[in-house]
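I'll show a record.
***
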Amino acid sequence: MWTIFRKELADHFSSSRFLIMLCLIAMVTLIITYMAGINLREELSGGSKPGSAFLMLFTTSGRFFSLSQFITFFGPLLGIIMGFDAINGERSKGTLPKLLSQPIYRDAIINGKFLAGVAVIAILFTSLILLIAGLGLLTVGAIPGINEVARLIIYLLVSIAYVAFWLGLSIVFSILFRSVATSALAGVALWIFLAFFTGFCSSLIADAVAPVDNQKNTQQVIANREVKHKISLISPVNLYTDATSTLLNPYRKTSKSFALLGPMERISMNRFQNPLPLGQSLLVVVPYLTTLLSLTVICFGAAYICFLRQEIRST
């Protein structure tokens, strides 16, 4: 397995496809971080810096979107690009039967390919976060504390698991479809649906299940939003968004983006304006992190089982 791992790792780092993707991600990340740092420096000039000023580099929008939003919507493309031809590419080149004719088990092949992809994702994201940290020190001048560093480490691990889910899904498509173009198209189509159309579909279902006849009826509005929120969680994109937005913002007390508060609830909330400790933030997002990690394991397990059961003939 480690021989396959080293071979796949070398192929990733030497491929033109990965280098182009790396340059594109690095360029966009630098532009977003620089613009967010300039905006933060202007907003924080003349006043004391908040405790989470360093984390704001990841959540503050530049010209169009923030860095966390960029990873949310375009991070899956990295996983899809790295895995859409993992198996059918070997099959089309005629190297898969030759590889299996060697004293190599099938599970070593699929394990080595998946682990190599996860390693590349981990190296890429770790480098990007370190690059952002250095650029943030230069532009904003905010030094991260231990709590912020711990939140960034957890954010890094969650991001790796998020992109690894798309990697495993693209490997499944590369096993199921013999055509490389078909597997790539299936992965991109599913990403577009889960990233951009899940919210629209959840709104339609919520309006049908829990319609709102009067916007002043708070119970109907809350029921409609609850149904919409629960349906939207079928998308890993929304799971990742809810989890990371709470991790990167210590002042966020809930993962929900909508909440109706009465007068007494507002008074109670105003008493707790201090940031949440890291442990409390983790308790809020544990269901989302567990679900996201489970989906990643399920995708890899599906790829593992499909590859072991698939018939491979030499041509």
Notes: The radius of gyration is 22 Å. Residues 268 and 310 are 59 Å apart (CA to CA). The chain has one domain: 2-309.
